[in-house]
Amino acid sequence: MNSPYFRWSLLALLILTGSFAVSAEMVSVNMGGSNIRGEVVKVSKDTIELKVGGKVQPIPVKLISAKDYYSCAKSILDPKDAKATFELGQYCLDKDLKKEADDLLTMAAALDKATYGAKVDELLNAKSAPKIDTPAKTIDPVKPPDKKDDDKTKVENKTKTPEDSMGDGDGAKEFITVTGPDGRKYKIPTQFMADKKDVAPRKPDEMKKFLDERSADLKSKVGGEWKMEETTHFYFFSNLKPEMHMYFKSLAEQFYNDIASILQHKEGDPLWNNKCCFYMLATRGQFAKFTSAIDQSPGAFNSGGYFMHEGRECHIVIPLYDTMPEAHQKREATNTLYHEGTHAFLQLTGNNVTIHSWLHEGMAQFIEFFKADPKNNTGRSDRVYTLQEMVRRNDLLGWEEGRDRPMGGLDRTGYAFAWSRVEFLYSNPDKSALPRMVKEIKAGKSDEEAMEIVFKMKVKDLEAAYQDWLKKRAPKNFSRE
Predict the structure, then answer these.
(1) CATH code, residues 26-128
(2) Would you tell me the crossing angle of helices 326-348 and 242-262 to the nearest 10 degrees?
């Protein structure tokens, strides 16, 4: 099984799927601390197009705030279009832009009462309903499973629903129902299933042939001037400018050292075959060609980067957002390198076993945010805001409920929950606790069993401590003391 993992747009829309028409209204958008002012040309679920100084500049939606997205969409909204007004109102409601949501939904109901009147009443009444506190879920004590091999997950059946793939475009995630080592059934993205295909490491002459052929394919099928350099742990390919090539080549090794230290991975421990191939592309257009011509996975173009593996044969692919200013390109690709590199490393360090969504995504975000400036990482800022709102509403996600979250690229609550859970576990004074927990899971233990072994607490008590930590740390933006 070829197992890609895609990094989806963090602020992609839950409802809006169409695009809006041209307008002459000027707006200001804050992107990574810089204000960009221009005329809104087009708004889609992934991109805002602004005409700045006579040139159209695409801006990825995930790099701007929900309020700025609303301002752009509102500026070109046809005041007579009830459907578009209703959809933008739903978006604002989801993003807690309450006044904007109320205005838009009320307007939609007035434009087409027959279609939207009852829907608007239901949405607004549900949003204003008082919150009823419920006790946190408890988890039954786990029973040690019988061990026969290093991955006890059994595939039961594959399912795919509209909710699973919402927002994932052509690269929609598929989910598989599995029986875990604790005997319970879970729903896991296929990307997090262990691909245990026996792919042997290449011999030196085989590797030389592969590298030569791959270099030729990149030049002929993708385009650009490609350079390959071998580092301690990677074969680093890029068609970037020399200074960018040097920066990311060095960053890849720095990433390796950082995550190996945090996860206490030692040289010689099982990981990927040979050295991992790392591909950096100068433009999104070249990225599209790579996903199609090299990886035969055109849907991966909808992502910001990905890793792919067959057994322990692994590679990582990251493009630059070439329509952005160079400083933003560098910052975004740096974050993606740490994020996707973590997915690859976590999957293959030690035993190659199936890992639940909360741990895979939680760890990828944790490593990314751990090394990023909190003031400049838009992903971290979004997670903090989401968690603060969850705490404010006393609407915390239980561990059992959140085991398989996030469920797709649009699950902001799931992403925030996953990050906060890993952040909490790492906050233990014993910094060996988190990597020891991962190793227990890699050895075939269930998540709950691994946590109870390492943290020496019942899961329900550990979860209660997490919720208390969440309430205390949210007002402080989860800064490390």
Answers:
(1) 1.25.40.10
(2) 40
Residue limits of CATH 1.10.390.10 in the chain: 204-476
Structural fold of domain 204-476: Neutral Protease; domain 2 (1.10.390)
CATH 1.25.40.10 in the chain is located at: 26-128
What is the rounded average pLDDT for all residues in the chain?
A: 81
pTM: 0.66
**Does the structure show a pLDDT above 60 at 289?**
yes
Q: What is the DSSP letter of 400?
A: T
Reference 408, options 2, 15, 4, 12; nearest CA is 12
Main-chain phi, psi angles of 420, to 5 degrees: -65, -35
Residue of 172 and 454 predicted with greater confidence: 454
Burial per residue of 389-402, b for 16 or more beta-carbon CB atoms within 10 angstroms, e otherwise: bbbeeeebbbbbeb
Task: Read off the pLDDT band of 299 (50, 70, 90).
Answer: confident
Compute CA distances 63 → 69, 117, 193, 330, whole Å: 10, 34, 30, 13
Helix or strand (DSSP H, E) at 459: helix 459-473
User: How many whole angstroms separate alpha carbon 412 and alpha carbon 62?
Assistant: 12
**How far apart are alpha carbons 378 and 10 in whole angstroms?**
9
